[in-house]
Amino acid sequence: MSAQKPVTSGAQRQRAFRDRMTRLGMTIPRIYMTEAEQELVRRFLRHVRGAHTDELVAHMDFNAMNDKWTLQALYGALASHAGESRQLAGLRLHQAPPSIEFHLRNYDDQPVSITVSEDEVHVSTPLCEQRSVQSPDAFNEACLRLGPVMPLSNVGLVGSHYVLFGQIPPHAPLANIVEELDVLGQNATLTMGELSHLIG
User: Fold this and answer.
1) What crossing angle do the helices spanning 136-146 and 174-195 adopt, rounded to 10°?
2) Which residue, 119, 120, 126, 130, is CA-closest to 104?
3) 10 Å Cβ neighbour count for 9?
4) Which pTM does this prediction carry?
5) How far apart are CA 64 and CA 80, in angstroms?
6) Of 156, 165, 155, whose CA–CA distance to 114 is shortest?
7) Are the beta carbons of 179 and 56 closer than 8 angstroms?
8) How far is CA 8 from CA 12, 17, 21, 111, 124, in A?
9) Which of 22, 84, 167, 173 lies at a 20 to 30 A Cα distance from 139?
10) How do residues 102-146 score in pLDDT, each as one tens digit?
11) Is the alpha carbon torsion for 84, 189, 141, 152 positive or negative?
């Protein structure tokens, strides 16, 4: 019987890191892309962080939170942030269904909705009504092709509306949520530019 291989300190640190990420509700996804798709992602990431993004997240706490967000707590944090940065306009707290609604000033007042559950903070913005799509097959294929070049965002159907959405772990600090909102705005602008010719 062979001797058991000793566990190295590097392996222990890696296991501890994975355990911390799991406790925070984070996973490392495996995404398979062609070389051309990888280059598109690299190009997008080189330009995704504008000067205003860095300004928005400056002086904010990047440490993971001990407690999960509640809708009321997140509304209060965003209201405070909106007063300082002017990124968010018309911030409102809805009770039925429970959500936070506002507009992104930097992206032509793009409307955004946030819901909070035990497992995630869910952010979304409408793209168009399903009935306004001229060719559903072409539109859906275009959405799938956009997926690899839109980090943190996905296209989906909610009722009869196409939406762009993203999810954040419930322990994520406010800085991460603010950056997710900025990326959502950028991705919405990109998506509408690519899909506008398919919308009547």
Assistant:
1) 140
2) 126
3) 7
4) 0.68
5) 19
6) 165
7) yes
8) 6, 14, 20, 50, 43
9) 167
10) 999 999 999 999 999 998 999 999 999 999 999 999 999 999 888
11) negative
